[in-house]
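// run 5 | inverse folding | seed 20
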């Protein structure tokens, strides 16, 4: 079936579904969060979509393979708290490297664990969509805690994964604070690695 454009006219973020209206039409098309490309930002009312229309339950039109185009959240997404926090930690890490107070092994640890976090979050998001074996939240937090926090924050934003789970985000923020204190302490000379 051919792809067409539509506008999201109603979206319930808590329940993960809404309705779009095709351009030039009046019929509403059901849109479920699982039908949205996993690399797209989470939709909001007013977003422009590109999708395929299929027959859903009860023969009503339903969306498939949805891409979010010209999202009204485009600027917001690039300035999200996850991106800003990851940037802050990265700046602290780089500043520590420039000042010579962050050892090369620690910087390397952040890079390698950050890459591991991105891979882990990506796998978990795909597994959630396919309904197969997933990585536990505890393991994702352990990766973040062991130096993968910068990559973990970036992955949460890129894959729109775990961002709407308040308890998960609280634990993530505790890990962020711990790493900010470590990197800040190194930069201020309060913590010294030999």
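// decoded
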């Amino acid at each position: 079936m051919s792809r067409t454009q539509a506008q999201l006219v109603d979206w319930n973020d808590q329940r993960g579904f809404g309705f779009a209206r095709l351009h030039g039409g009046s019929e509403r098309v059901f849109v479920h969060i699982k039908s949205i490309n996993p690399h797209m930002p989470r939709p909001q009312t007013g977003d422009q979509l590109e999708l395929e229309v299929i027959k859903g339950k009860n023969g009503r039109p339903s969306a498939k393979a949805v891409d979010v185009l010209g999202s009204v959240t485009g600027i917001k997404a690039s300035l999200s708290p996850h991106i800003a926090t990851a940037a802050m930690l990265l700046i602290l890490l780089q500043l520590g490297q420039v000042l010579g107070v962050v050892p090369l092994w620690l910087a390397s640890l952040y890079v390698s664990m950050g890459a591991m976090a991105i891979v882990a979050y990506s796998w978990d998001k795909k597994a959630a969509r396919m309904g197969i074996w997933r990585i536990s939240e505890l393991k994702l937090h352990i990766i973040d805690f062991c130096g993968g926090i910068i990559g973990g924050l970036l992955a949460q934003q890129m894959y729109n994964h775990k961002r709407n789970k308040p308890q998960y985000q609280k634990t993530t923020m505790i890990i962020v604070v711990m790493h900010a204190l470590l990197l800040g302490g190194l930069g201020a000379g309060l913590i010294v690695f030999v």
